[in-house]
Amino acid sequence: MVWGMSRKGRFALMSLGATALLIAIASLSNGVGLGQRAIAQTMADHYLAATADTVHWGYFSQDLAPELVMNSGETVTVETLTHHANDDASLMVMGDPGAESVYEWTEDGKGVDRRGAGSIDPEVYTVGAGEGAGVHILTGPIYVNGAEPGDVLEVEILDVAPRPSANPDYEGRTFGSNAAAWWGFHYNDMLEESREVITIYELDSTGEEDYATALYNFQWTPQTDPYGVVHEIIDYPGVPVDHDTVEENYEVLEGVTVPIRPHFGVIGLAPAEADIVDSVPPSYFGGNIDNWRIGKGATMYYPVAVEGGLLSMGDPHAAQGDSELAGTAIETSLTGTFRVTVHKQDELPDTVLEDLYYPLLETDTEYIVHGFSYPNYLADLGETAQQDIYANSSIDKAMRDAFRKMRHFLMTTQGLTEDEAVSLMSVAADFGITQVVDGNWGVHGIIKKEVLPMA
């Protein structure tokens, strides 16, 4: 954050090219963002830092003013912060101006007050403003000139870099957190009493190594936030953990290395069905898809629902398995560079984007469709959708949706008959569980380009 500048002044800086922006920030502030240093070699047309002024916490909204305006085909470097950094603030917040501004929380106020799509009325909410009905720190939104409802927005991930710790005691090191939490699939099926356990991981901050190792873990104990609210469980994002109240166990996963697959759990557009939408359940507009394949070299396609698209991203992960079983990945802050392109509605016929109504992932070798228990839960479940989705999801429904989307993709873009599509899916497509922890459960379907007639 460039302290002392007006919002208008910061907005003007965001419109500069990356080189000019870095020079401008260096001349105005001693606190150049760590994400800027980590990815400075990747030049982009725009740079969007993560600060208390440029993020929204826990929700998408078509009513948010854009933090950046860009043209189709331009590139942008975006800093993203994990919402689990306060699991160990000394490792992931301390000394980092951007993270400190976002996580600031004293008895007098918060850097980002609203955390979630719930009530912000102190007479109504219980655990905090926004009620934690949505948890992810999202950078943006970005308004893309020319994007209109009916179009498709392409987001190509050109580069991903870790955000190293700014604490001088941990210089050159990067950390992340995995919370095995109450919303995890495992929680009510444990051999002993149900409990929430957080494991802190370390990964290479240069990006040259391809693994992470567990540093220590601890069991969540009731935590009292700066407003005096006691959190018996992890029920509100960004609650600072008092490490004097937990027992740290450093004998954890000894000899185990976890392959690193840096990716963004959340990339999405603003939906049109509601003014403010919980960031947790994914849907047709993307959002919290939590597919570890959405990393460097991948391209995502999203149906546009509102003017400008209003692209936001966050929930950065170092590693995650299919299902995200315990509730989270290795949650760590990342900086990404993206190319964003608008595909106009009248240009979509006879392409792989024809009649696209769901988020589609493309890699060098595959197309991947994303099925959900409810393909558009906001419309499917009515006025109480944002509450009901958490009680109505199932893998059966998500698999049915993934099948239907793969069938649609093969018939619409590849010219197959239904019988041909069904046979090809049965012998060549791989379906897997994306996640079972995000309210609207996900199943993905993968088809290799080499088997497609029109690839």
TrEMBL record:
One of its GO terms (molecular function) is hydrolase activity, acting on carbon-nitrogen (but not peptide) bonds, in linear amides. It comes from the Bacteria. InterPro entries: FmdA_AmdA (IPR004304). SUPFAM superfamilies: Acetamidase/Formamidase-like. This is Acetamidase. It comes from Leptolyngbya iicbica LK.
